[in-house]
Write a structure and sequence with these properties.
Number of helices: 9
Bound molecules: zinc ion
Structural class: mainly alpha
Mean pLDDT: 78
Strand order of the largest sheet: 1-2
Strand content: 5-15%
Order of helices and strands: HHHHHHHHEEH
Length: 187
């Protein structure tokens, strides 16, 4: 019997609307209650799932504390998510280090331009890697007078290489640039 036949049998849809509301028995209500609870019980109580570590405390400590790896780096190493690493550290009671500014020099910097560095950037790199030319003194005439000007003179035109520069006093730098580019000078 289809529902259309059912409606026909009881006088059509109009009559069906006026039918009394079905009442449920106590047993039926209890069964419905159990079924509803089962549907809602998807959020299981705490402790239902056992935490399984992805590595030992010693390994995690060695990576995080000794090697100084970040949570993200550790996550990548073990093929887990950062959240998993974070939880493991919490479970193992490994204190998290304060967020510190990490090494921003060279390739670690997002703005790293590598070998395509412009002339001023190359000079800034030399200064960072080797210090101020003034502190080295002139490599040609041996001048150490701090009141004078000193420069990092580029030797062979390999500007991106910080070791292609030699500290010189302004006078020697001018003379060096004038006489030649390249060839042996001093480091
Ligand atoms: Zn000099």
């Amino acid at each position: 019997m289809t529902h259309l036949e059912l409606f026909a049998g009881i006088g059509g849809i109009r009559e069906w609307y006026s039918m009394p509301v079905k009442t449920f028995t106590k047993e039926h209500r209890e069964r419905m209650s159990i079924a509803a609870k089962a549907r809602c019980a998807r959020s299981l109580p705490k402790g239902t799932f056992k935490w399984i570590p992805f590595c030992s405390k010693e390994t995690l400590e060695s990576d995080y504390v000794t090697s100084g790896m970040s949570q993200v780096e550790i996550a990548e190493k073990y093929g887990v998510s950062q959240k998993v690493v974070w939880l493991a550290m919490k479970k193992y009671d490994i204190p998290r280090r304060p967020r510190i500014k990490r090494n921003q020099y060279g390739p670690n910097n997002d703005s790293w331009v590598g070998d395509s560095a412009s002339y001023p950037t190359s000079h800034a790199r030399v200064k960072y890697v080797r210090g101020r030319a003034k502190d080295h003194g002139c490599c040609r005439c041996g001048l150490k007078d701090k009141s004078k000007w000193y420069d990092w003179a580029n030797l062979t035109g390999n500007y991106p290489d910080p070791f292609d520069y030699a500290p010189m006093c302004r006078k020697c730098h001018r003379a060096f640039d004038k006489s030649r580019r390249g060839g042996a000078a001093c480091q």
